[in-house]
Amino acid sequence: FPFSPRLLGNSSRLTMTRNAIWALSNLCRGKNPPPEFQKVQPTLPVLARLLFHTDADVLSDACWALSYLSDGPNEKIQAVIDAGVCRRLVELLMHEQSNVVSAALRAVGNIVTGDDVQTQVILNCGALPCLHHLLSSIKESVRKEACWTLSNITAGNRQQIQAVLDANIFPILIELMSKAEFKTRKEAAWAITNATSGGTPDQIRYLVEQNCIGPLCDLLTVMDIKIVQVALNGLENILRLGDQDAKLNSGTNRYAVLVEECYG
User: Fold this and answer.
1) Distance between CA 127 and CA 93 in Å, rounded?
2) Three-state SS across 98-149?
3) Keywords, A to Z (predicted)?
4) CA pair distance 121, 74, nearest whole angstrom
């Protein structure tokens, strides 16, 4: 790519910039095999600049390019973080054009598949209020991607689960887990189950208070075996806590009673 930073850096003509960034995003794309990262890495400073362009198509393609570059191992995610794009990507989650939002959301979602420190960079940019907002988007695909992004955040550490809790996101996830289209319900279920796996006893009790047991039980009867497993894992984590509480208190597992009530 000897030409691309120069071409994209100085082109004042919008059509040329649009065509160049579209071509560039396609060069960053591809899984089998992915492009050699050393060859596409020099485009990162250019993409970082283009995130401040005024044209929605340019913004969208720049975000897609960053999403392709961050789709992979943590070293690639780190290179994208080091380019300084995270704060702007989070800001673009609130853009008025849905094609920009979808692309920025995929890039943010890929970054939070990294380790806890990488995920924290996105949280520190104020992503949770934006994701809260996107959970009630009119576009089902955006709601699904927001759930997927949150499922990778709730797979993080207890402080990160607490941040999701403090942002009042779990009640919406639980509602989506019971009422949304199936693809979205699946991602919401992952988000809840991940929180039950890594959460503190108090965090798990909070999820039960928000009525997560019923929607998890409902997923046990679907035809998708992977999601049945996910729902079972979540219920198992909750019932294990119920057992511990029972030993300390009344002797009955309150959560087992709630699960039984779901089955009449």
Assistant:
1) 8
2) HHHHHHHHHHHHHHCCCCHHHHHHHHHCCHHHHHHHHCCCCCHHHHHHHHHH
3) Protein transport, Transport
4) 13
Cβ burial of 36 (10 Å; 0-12, 13-18, 19+) is exposed
> Which residues make Cβ contacts (< 8 Å) with residue 39, sequence separation at least 6?
1
Closest by Cα among 35, 37, 61, 36 to 47: 61
CA 255 to chain centre: 29
Region for 103 from its dihedrals, namely left if φ exceeds 0, alpha if ψ lies in -120 to 50, beta otherwise:
alpha
| Average pLDDT, 10 consecutive residues per value, the chain (264 residues) | 52 80 86 80 92 95 96 95 98 98 98 99 99 98 99 99 99 98 98 99 98 97 96 98 89 92 76
Name residue, tokens 């992915």: 34
| Distance (Å, whole) CA 101 – CA 5 | 25
The answer to whether 101 and 145 have CB atoms below 8 angstroms apart is no
Return the pLDDT at 24: 86
Closest CA to 97 of 149, 62, 132: 62
> For residues 237 and 207, what is the distance between their CA atoms, to the nearest angstrom?
11
DSSP states of 29-62 as a string? --SSSPPPHHHHGGGHHHHHHHTT-S-HHHHHHH
Judge whether 17 and 8 are in contact, CB under 8 Å.
yes
Cβ atoms of 195 and 238 within 8 Å: the answer is: no
Q: Do the beta carbons of residue 59 and residue 51 sit within 8 Å?
A: yes
Q: Read off the pTM.
A: 0.92
Residues 71, 77 contacting (CB under 8 angstroms)? no
